[in-house]
Amino acid sequence: MTSTVQHQVERSAGVTAPAGFRAAGVIAGIKPAGKPDLTVVVNDGPYDGAAGVFTTNKVKAAPVLWSQQVLTAGKLKAVVLNSGGANACTGPEGFQDTHKTAEELATILGVGAGEIGVCSTGLIGERLPMDKLLPGLKSVVDALGDTPEHSLSAATAVMTTDNVPKQAVLKHADGWSIGGFAKGAGMCAPNMATMLSVITTDAIVDQPHLDHVLRNAVGKTFNRLDVDGGTSTNDTVLLLSSGASGIKVPADEFEAALTALAADLVKQLQADAEGVTKHVSITVLNAATEAEAVAAAKVVAEDNLCKTAFFASDPNWGRIAMAVGNAPTAFDPALLDITLNGAAICIAGGKGVDRSEADLSGLEIDVVIDLHAGSASATVLTTDLSHAYVEENSAYSS
């Protein structure tokens, strides 16, 4: 696959940067606090190819079930996203609410309900206030536009515990572009994606390739962020292509650009994770397979003893060795090396340089674990377990 991308990712815009897309986010009254809570992204074409990747959680929210169903046709004209309620564990009535949402937006836009993707995020187990959501659809459609301000409003209205909106754009030197937004600050240990993300492109990429490259890009980016070990009921990443640039892009070239864009969104998600005080990168080197490298890194990322040590800026490599030893990964413990922020603190399964050489006092912590068991490697991003994380999640439902 082509690994070079002919333009840098920027954060000045998002889903409206590619030609053929409009978006907006408004206050519909779904959130009691009166903050923006309803977003619509519209694909004006001429192409309407789409692909999606969804949570692997067995408990799937109604909008996930709906969007999976409509995407079997491989196209979307629009996506509606609400914050302030997950519409998960709401039974047949919740699915009907999702269906009504798609039908109402489809009627306003003059398209079919089967061409509308639906996403929701918020508290699990509560029905959505349809008396507010449905009228809000007219307001958000009236507000649609293609400026950077419209893109930002769309990214803002999907936020729940996020502190800042997250968006990015990559404008390729050949004249096509990719833009997107993402939300997610907790319940992030995706086996597909992190919470909600919509990505748009004006490149022409046929639908089977859209699906393939999205899955590849998600596997290398969204699936490598693990904040707290919780895979959400609502995780969704949608990729929409308008083809408005008129430029047909080879799948490998498009995948490289999509992966770069998604990686930037994931870094923004990591930086805004609930209670975050440390940005932790865990790289496993020389594993037998890439899957084993990912598995080992994720065990460390999810281990509470490791995460509290990161919070304390404590170079407690013994906790990392313990976590790696619990991973479904083949290696010889007598060969294990662990480096923290450049300090080889564990060498050949035992004590390396003095702990004082591993300075973890800054924002960034770089963990490198060498298994000496093969040639595969992988990196997983995570955060620390802070007082603020516990406080925020203990108070969330109230």
From TrEMBL:
Record carries keyword Secreted: no
Catalytic activity of the protein: N(2)-acetyl-L-ornithine + L-glutamate = N-acetyl-L-glutamate + L-ornithine; L-glutamate + acetyl-CoA = N-acetyl-L-glutamate + CoA + H(+)
Site-annotated residues for Cleavage: A193, T194
Binding site for substrate: T160, K183, T194, E274, N393, S398
Entry keyword annotation includes Mitochondrion: no
Protein keywords: Acyltransferase, Amino-acid biosynthesis, Arginine biosynthesis, Autocatalytic cleavage, Cytoplasm, Multifunctional enzyme, Transferase
InterPro entries in alphabetical order: Arg_biosynth_ArgJ, ArgJ-like_dom_sf, ArgJ_beta_C
CDD domains reported in the protein's UniProt record: OAT
Stored SUPFAM superfamilies: DmpA/ArgJ-like
Pathway: Amino-acid biosynthesis; L-arginine biosynthesis; L-ornithine and N-acetyl-L-glutamate from L-glutamate and N(2)-acetyl-L-ornithine (cyclic): step 1/1; Amino-acid biosynthesis; L-arginine biosynthesis; N(2)-acetyl-L-ornithine from L-glutamate: step 1/4
EC number(s) given by UniProt: 2.3.1.35, 2.3.1.1
Catalytic site positions: T194 (nucleophile)
Subcellular location per the Swiss-Prot or TrEMBL entry: Cytoplasm
Domain of life: Bacteria
Primary site of residence: cytoplasm
Entry's family note: Belongs to the ArgJ family.
Function according to Swiss-Prot or TrEMBL: Catalyzes two activities which are involved in the cyclic version of arginine biosynthesis: the synthesis of N-acetylglutamate from glutamate and acetyl-CoA as the acetyl donor, and of ornithine by transacetylation between N(2)-acetylornithine and glutamate.
Entry-linked NCBIfam families: ArgJ (TIGR00120), PRK05388.1 (NF003802)
Protein name: Arginine biosynthesis bifunctional protein ArgJ
Organism from which the protein derives: Kribbella koreensis
Gene behind this protein: argJ
